[in-house]
Amino acid sequence: MASPDLESLTSSERRLLWALSVMVEQYLTRRDRQGREFLDNECMVAGEEALAVLAQHGLVTMEPGSTRMGEWSEAGRKFMHPMSRGAP
């Protein structure tokens, strides 16, 4: 899926996207039995929408045919790491 250029977002839009990312990381991150990290919205509509927005921006990749499970993309990891010290 083509993603909008994150650099073209306004400061306010980047801050909102960061806040959404932090919420997803905190509440939707799970680990499987092998220790692999993944995102699971647990069939919550808000979680589905959050993952969809992050996927539109290329920050999350969704499992094919699924609106429930995904994982952080490389772009998502890069977006999150500089933000770990605080919002943009």
Structural write-up:
The chain is α+β, with helices and mostly antiparallel strands and 88 residues long. It is built from three helices and four strands, in the order αββαββα. It has helices at 11-28, 45-56, 74-83, and strands at residues 29-31, 37-40, 60-62, 69-72. Helix 1 packs across helix 2. The radius of gyration is 13 Å and the shape is globular.
Quick summary:
This protein is an alpha+beta fold and 88 residues long. Helices cover 45% and strands 16% of the residues.
Write the layout of secondary structure elements.
Layout: H1 11-28, E1 29-31, E2 37-40, H2 45-56, E3 60-62, E4 69-72, H3 74-83
Antiparallel strand pairs: 1-2, 2-4, 3-4
Helix pairs in contact: 1-2
State the main characteristics.
Arc Repressor Mutant, subunit A; alpha+beta
Please give the CATH class.
Answer: Mainly Alpha
Annotation, overall tally of beta strands:
4
Q: According to CATH, what is the topology?
A: Arc Repressor Mutant, subunit A
- Under the CATH scheme, the architecture is Orthogonal Bundle
Indicate the mean pLDDT. Answer: 87
